[in-house]
Amino acid sequence: MSDRSNRLTRRKFLVASGAAALAAACGPSATPGASASAAATASAAATAGKALKIGVLLPFTKVYAELGNSMKRSTELYLKQAGGKLANRPVTAIYEDEANDPAVGLQKTQKFIEQDNVDLMMGIVATPIAYAVRGAVDSAKMIFIETNAGGNALTRDIANCTPSCKSKYIFRSSFSSWQISSPIGDYFATKKGVKEAFTFVADYGFGTESAADFTQSFTKGGGKVTGSLKAPLGSADFLPFVTQLKNQPTKDIYSFFSGTDAINYIKAWNQLGMPAAGYRMNGAGFLTEQDVLKEVKDLANGAVTSLFWAVTLDNAENKAFVDAYQKEYNLLPDVFAVQQWDGLKAVDLALQATKGDTSNKDAFITALEGVKFKSPRGDFEFDKTTHNPIQDMYIREVKVQSGQAVNVIVDKIARVTDPGKPTT
Amino acid sequence: MTVEVAIQQALNGISFGALLFILAAGLSLIFGMMDVINLAHGAFYMLGAYIALAAVQRTGNFWLALVLAPLLVGALGLIIEPLLLRRLRGRHLDQVLLTIGISLVIVDLVGLVAGREIRSIPFPAGLDRSVPIIGGDYPVYRLFVIAFGILLAALFAFIHRRSRLGALIRAGVDDAPMLAALGVDIDRVFATTFAAGAALAAIAGVIAAPVFGVFPGMDVDALIYSLIVVVVGGLGTLSGAIAGGALVGPADTFGKVLFPQFALALIFAIVAFVLLLRPTGLLGRVRIAR
Amino acid sequence: MRRGALIAGAAVAALALVTFPVWTSEWESSRYATTVLRDMLVLAILALSLDLLVGSAGLPSLGHAAFFGAGAYAAAVTMARLGSDELLVGLGAAIVASALLSLVIGLFAVRAAGIFFLMLTLAFAQMVFAVAFQATELTGGSNGLPGVRRPRLLGLDFNAPDALFELVATTFVVVVLLLWRIRTSAYGLALVGVRENERRMRALGYDATRLKLSAFVLAGAIAGVAGALSGWSLRFVSTNDVGIGRSIEAFVSVLIGGTATLLGPAIGAVVVLYVERVLPSSIPFAETVLGLLFIAFVVAARQGIVGVARAAYARARPAPARAS
C-alpha cells in the first residue's frame, strides 16, 4: 500500500529532523570536540580569583513569583555591595525558574550540575521541589544553600529518608517549620497563660506540620487544643471557615496561611467581626509578613505571630539592610530577602575561610559549619549536626507605625535549634 | 450545626454561588450562544481584576473600574474574534488551542507589565461594613454580590427568552448561511457577542477582586470554576450558568465545612455526579452535532 | 525496493535515538542534553497515548495525567513496599493501576461526548489529584514521593543515567510501533469511524461504546507506563504529575504536533517542553512565545507540525509518484 510506505518516509524524515532540531536546540555549549574538563584543579591557589558560578533556583512564574523576585533582588544587592566578588572571585549568578513544579526544579538542578558546572547552588522556595532535588544534589556532591523551603525533613535524620532527610552538602539559611511553630506553642501555654487554642491551617505540608508542631508543644506546656479546621490550599472563599470559627467558643486561634490565603483569611476575619467578638488571631509568622501586611494594612492589627525576623527589628545590621534595600528598590524588604541575604553572607564568609577554594568540598563544608555572623535577624550560625540555622524566634504583634502596618517585636525566645529528628 | 450557623453558611453559599454565576456568565454566553470554547475566559477575568487594581491605585475609585474594565476588555474581544476566532467556527479543538495561546500571552504580559506580586483590593467605601443579620454580622459586599448576580441573571433571562437579539444569535448558530441570506450581518453579531462575553469576564474580575484577590495563576482558578458552573448548569442555555452557580455555590460551601477531608475533591465530585445523572447538565439540551 | 529502504531508514533513526547518549558523549553538556531528551520522550509517550483518544477516537480528554500519575505512584509504591527492583514488577503495577483507573473512569466518561467528555475527564482527574494530595501515607501527599528506586531487568541495571535513557527511548520506539500497528489495523480504523460518524458505525453493527472504552483503557495503560518512566527518571513522584498542568501539556503537544498522525504528538511534546523548559534560560518571555506559537499554528498550520511537514514534502516532490 502506498499509504504505508509514505508514512514510513515521513517518519524517517521527522525523526531525523527532530534529532537535528534537538541538537541545535541544546545551545552553543553542545558542540562536539574537545570540552573543558569539569573537574576543578586541586590546589586552592589555582581557584582563587577564578570566576565563581552560583546556580540560583527560584520561582519567577506561578504563585510564588513574588518571593523569587524578592530573593533575586536581595542577591543582586548583596553582590553589588560586595563589588561583584566573593573572596576575590568574580561572581556569576545564573538564575533559573523552578515554576512551582518538582520536575522543572529537578531539570534546572541538573542543568546547573551538568551544563553550567556551577560551584554551588542556592534557592528553592517550595518544599516539594527541595525534597525532589535533595537526592540529585547529594549524589553530585553539590553544595546547596537552601534559602526558603521550610520542610522539617530536609535537615533531619529520618528513617528511609522519607519524605526527605539531611545531607552534608545541604545547608539551610531560612528556617524549619518546627522552629516557627513549636516555640510559640510553649510560649503561649507557659509564659502567656493561654489555656485553650484552636488550630486553623492550610491543608498541605507546611500547614499540617505547623499545626502538629504547635499542638504538641502547646499541649506539653499545659494547654489544650480544642479543635482544628483545615482549608484547602488556595481556597477562594474563607467566609465559611471563619463562620465555623466564630461559632465555637475558643478565642485563641492558631493559624498557618501565607500569601493570598493569608490576605483573604484576614479580610474574612474582619468582615465577620471576629476582633469585636473577642477572637484573637495568632500564627506562624508568614501569616502577617510584609507581603500580606502591605495589602491588608491595619486589618491584621493585634495578630501575634512568631518568626525569626521582623522589619522593625532593632539592630545595626537590620537597619543597614532595610535602608540599603529601600534605597535600591524603593521597597521594604521581606523575610525571604533576609533568608537569601544570609545565605550569601554564609557563602561569603566560608569562601574567605577557604581562601576562595570550592574544589575541596569537605573543607568548604567545614568552613560553612563554622560561620558565625551578625545578620539582620540577629546572631546567625548553622547547627553543625543539621545544617539548619540556630536563631532567635521573635514573638511579634502587628501594629501600625508611621502609617504602615508592621510587625513589632514584643518578646523573644532565644537560640532555637531544630531537634534534628521527628518529634511527633 | 445550629440553625443560626446553617443560615449563615447558607448565605455564604448563596453569595459564593452568585460570584460563581457572575464569573461564569461570560463563558456561558459565548458557549451557549456562539458554540465557541473560550479558554481565554480566565485571562479576560484576570485583565479585569488588574484594571480594577490600577484604577483603585490611581484614582481610589472602584466603580470607575466597573465601567473601564468591560470597555477595555470588550474592545480586545472585538479585535480577537474577527481576527483569529472567526475562521474556526465549529472547530472546537482549534478553538481550544487558540484560546489557550491567547490566554498564555495575556497572562504573561500582565505579569510583565503589572508585576507578579500578590495584591488585594479593599472593599469599596460604603460596601465595606457588615450589617446584623440572623446570627451575626454579615458583610454588605456579599449582599451586593447577590444583588448584582440577581440583576445579571434577570438580564440574561430577558435576553434568552424575550429579546430579538437572543433569537438572532441562536438562529445564527443553528444556520448561519440562512440567516445571512435573510440579510443579517451574522459576523457582526458574533463579534459583538464575543466582546460581550469578554466584557462580562472583566466585570467578574472587578467584582470578585476584593473577595478572591489579584495574583499570578488566578486565571486558571477562575477558568476551572467557570467551566464547572457552565457544564453543571447545562450548556446550550444561558440559564444554565444561573443553575450552575445556584447548585455549586452552596454545595461547595456546605461540603467544605461538613466534609473537610474531601474539600479539595468535593467540587469535582459534584460535577461528575451531575454529569452522570444528567449528561448535558442540569438545564442543558443536546445540541445536534453537524 | 523503496519500502525496504524506508524501513531501514526508520530503523536507523530509532537506533540513533536509543543510542543518543553514546554518540553525543563528546559534547560538553551531553548528560544534560540526555536528561532533557529523556523528559521530552516521556511526555511524548504520554502525548502519543492521548492521541489515541483525541486523534483516533475523537475523545478530547483533559484528564489524561490522572493515569500518568497513577502509573508513576503505583510503580514507585509497589516497588518500595515489596522491596523489589524488578522492572516487570514496576511496569506491571503501573499498567494494572492505570488500566483499572481508566476502566472505572472510562465507564462513566465514554457515555459523554465533546465538551461534556472534556469536563468529565477533567473532573475525574481533579478528584484523582485530590486523593493523591490528601493520601499522605501512600503518596507522600503535597510533599511528594522521594527516593524512587530505579529498576533492574535480569542483569541490566537502570540506575546509570544512560541506561535509564535507553530504557525510555526503547519504550518510546515500542509505543510508536504499537500505535502504528493499531492505527492501521481494523480496530484502529473502527475507532476513526466512531470519531467520524458514531451513529453510522452503530448502524453498521459496531459496539461504539465498547470501542471507545477499550481505547480509553489502552490509552490509560500506555500513559501509566509513561508515568512509571517519569518516576524512575526523576526518582520522584509529585502531585504535579497527576495535575491539570500535566494534562494540558499533553493536550497541547498533541494539537501542536498534529493530531491523528503517527509522530505528531511526539514532535509536539519536544517543541512544548523545549519552549517551556529550555528556552526560559535564554529569554524572559517564554510563556508569551508558547502562546504565540499556539496561535500561529491554529492560524497558519491547522494540521500541526506534521501537517506543515507533509505540505512542504508534497510540494518538494515531483508529481508523477502520486498517480496510482
What does this structure look like?
The complex is a heterotrimer of chains A (424), B (290) and C (324). With 424 residues, chain A is α/β, with parallel strands linked by helices. Chain A has 2 domains: 46-175 and 314-387, 3-Layer(aba) Sandwich (Rossmann fold); 177-307 and 392-416, Response regulator (Rossmann fold). Chain A contains 13 helices and 15 strands. Chain A has helices at 2-25, 44-47, 65-81, 102-115, 127-139, 177-191, 205-220, 239-246, 259-271, 290-296, 316-329, 335-353, 361-370, and strands spanning 52-58, 85-86, 89-97, 120-123, 144-146, 170-172, 196-203, 224-232, 252-256, 280-284, 304-307, 372-375, 378-382, 389-401, 404-416. Chain A starts with a helix and ends in an 8-residue tail after the last strand. Chain B is an all-alpha fold and 290 residues long. Helix content of chain B is 74%, strand content 3%. Chain B is globular. Chain C is an all-alpha fold. Chain C has a domain at 30-243. The chains are: A alpha/beta (424), B mainly alpha (290), C mainly alpha (324). Chains in contact: A-B, A-C, B-C. At the A-C interface, helix 1, helix 4 and helix 5 of A face helix 1, helix 3, helix 8, helix 13 and helix 15 of C.
Largest sheet of chain C: 2 strands, antiparallel
Order of helices and strands of chain B: HHHHEEHHHHHHH
Proportion of residues in extended strands of chain C: under 5%
Q: Give the ordered list of helices and strands of chain C.
A: HHHHHHHEEHHHHHHHH
Can you give me a brief rundown of this structure?
The complex is a heterotrimer of chains A (424), B (290) and C (324). Chain A is α/β, with parallel strands linked by helices and 424 residues long. Chain A is built from 13 helices and 15 strands.
